[in-house]
Structures are given as structure tokens and as C-alpha cells.
Amino acid sequence: DVANFLLRTKGLDKAAVGELLGGHDDESVAVMRAFARSFDFSKLDFDVALRVFLKPFRLPGEAQKIDRLMEAFAARYCACNDGAFANTDAAYVLAFAVIMLNTDAHNDAMDGKLTRDEFAAMARSAESGGDVDDAMLHTLYDRVVKDEIKFTDEE
Fold first, then answer.
1. 66-102 tens-digit pLDDT
2. Where do the domains of the chain lie, and which CATH numbers do they carry?
3. Is 45 helix (H, G, I), strand (E, B) or coil?
4. Is the pLDDT of residue 12 over 70?
5. 75 CB contacts (<8 Å, ≥6 apart)?
6. Catalytic residues
7. How far apart, in whole angstroms, are the C-alpha atoms of residue 83 and residue 6?
């Protein structure tokens, strides 16, 4: 299938793969869901799973495409780690917050870097994210600030 091809084929244009996976048409959504289902995130830390998910493609620039990809990631992470979050919305909000933190922490053009507490507040911005553990959020913050999630076309 297409999702398997995208995962297994070396040398694909990662930006084009990201654009396809983030598409809103029915075929793109079906491919993205199959792509997400191909990952086993069991017992992986949240940021590690997100890095694994993002490695085969370059995150598109359009917010709606990123949104769809983070929804698919969150659903798959929750399916592989039952009980890790109250619901997939909490995982989705956290995934988006991690992407925003990564951009903030590793883009020199960004002034006023997010603090740990600001990141935690952002991660809890949705009602469903209120039950996310402080220690987990602080660990996520520290790991993402220390080790950038790279969005490049290189292997």
C-alpha cells in the first residue's frame, strides 16, 4: 500500500511526503491514517515517539496540515499506550505544544523563549490536558530544548 511505500522507500522527497500525508482529500487522509497505524509506539516516551513519527517526512508549513498530522500521531500514540492520557485530545494538544516549543527553542529569530512553566501551561491549554503530569511536561521541555526535533529533508 501507499503508506508502506512511503515508509520503506529510500530517497523520497520528504517535503513531498509531508505534503501528501497532511492533505485534506479523502485519499491523503486514508494514507495518513494507514501511515500512522504502521508505527508501534508502545512504551516509548512521548517525544521519542513523536521523533520516530516525524522522521520519514518533513513537517509541512501549513498549520492545517500539521494539525491533521498531530491528530493522527496522538490517536496512534494513545492506541499504543492505553491510559497514557485521559483522551486523544490531551495527546494532540501536547504534540502541538511540543512542535511549538521546538520551534521556539531552536529558532534564533524567536525572542522571549518559552519557560518550562509557560510550556506546561500551553500543554494544558485544552481542558482535556489538565491531567498531564508536571514531571512529564518538565522532562519533555528539557529534552526538546536540549535536542532539537529536526525537520529536514536529509536522512
1. 999 999 999 999 999 999 988 899 899 999 999 999 9
2. 2-146 (1.10.1000.11)
3. coil
4. yes
5. 36, 88, 91
6. 62
7. 30
